[in-house]
Amino acid sequence: MYDAIVVGARCGGSPTAMLLARHGYRVLLVDQATFPSDTVSTHFIWPPGLACLKQWGLMERVLASNSPAFRTIGLDLGDYVLTGDMPPTDGVAEMSAPRRIVLDKLLRDAALEAGAEIRESTTVTGLNFADHRVTGIRCRGRSGTEFTEQARIVMRLSRELCRQSLRAWHLWLGFALPAAPGPQRLSHPDCRGFSH
Q1: Least reliable range by pLDDT among 33-42, 113-122, 163-172, 176-185
Q2: Is-cis flag, bond preceding 36, omega within 30?
Q3: Distance between CA atoms of 154 and 175, rounded to whole angstroms?
Q4: 20: Cβ contacts below 8 Å, ≥ 6 apart
Q5: What's the mean pLDDT in 113-134?
Q6: Exposed, middle or buried: residue 162 (CB in 10 Å: 0-12, 13-18, 19+)?
Q7: If you average pLDDT over residues 102-122, what whole number do you get?
Q8: H-type helices in the chain, by residue range?
Q9: How far is it, in rounded angstroms, from Cα 32 to Cα 28?
């Protein structure tokens, strides 16, 4: 049994798995992609996000990946042009715009280095429950083999929230499921400044 299963190994899931593993938890990180893997994104990292990367010892890796830091941003609306520098967060005022194929692999590798077990090309096909609580996942691996894993907590940190996992979160947290769920965001204080 794992302490935590994290579903989604991109810029939300990998740092979560890394931080849990660094604190000694037994973590399984699963993703349907195989890394490096690109994804459509308008992603850039604001100063709070780079401050997190610096705190985690990863900022220099990102900047060394052919993604230079910049301080000034602008918005050109024709007759109106706005430019400025962002206020620093924990001494970091820079921003960076790494390609997701680079950033996601870097974060995934950091989770692996921290001790998280990673399974790529793995699709979550369902959730396991006990006493109205999520206790694990059902998956299909690269070879098509079905398997089950158990954990004290299951987190889905990917952009797509399927109705089944949303229902599971609501059951686990004790909330009623809305009739037509809209976009849901779960945030983590150590991941502020990341937008995707």
Answers
A1: 176-185
A2: yes
A3: 16
A4: 3, 4, 6, 27, 116
A5: 94
A6: exposed
A7: 97
A8: 13-22, 47-55, 59-63, 100-114, 163-173
A9: 13
- Contact of 16 with 157, CB cutoff 8 Å: yes
Four-CA torsion 174, 182, 120, 57, nearest 10 degrees: -80
Give the model confidence (pLDDT) of 140-196 as tens digits.
Answer: 999 999 999 999 999 987 655 444 444 444 444 444 434 444 443 334 444 444 333
| Average pLDDT estimate for 21-43 | 91
What is the structure's pLDDT at 40?
A: 81
What are the structure tokens assigned to 32, written together? 């349907």
Q: What is the mean pLDDT of the chain?
A: 84
CA-based nearest residue to 101, from 156, 37, 22: 37
Question: Closest Cα partner for 43 from 87, 99, 88?
Answer: 99
Domain ranges within the chain, ordered by starting residue: 2-43+98-191
Give kind and range of the element (H or E) at residue 136: strand 133-140
CA atoms within 13 A on the CB side of 6: 27
> Helix, strand or coil for residue 119?
strand
Cα gap 196→193, rounded to integer Å: 10
Considering the four listed CATH numbers 3.50.50.60, 3.20.19.10, 3.90.1280.10, 3.20.20.70, the one that applies to the domain covering 2-43+98-191 is: 3.50.50.60
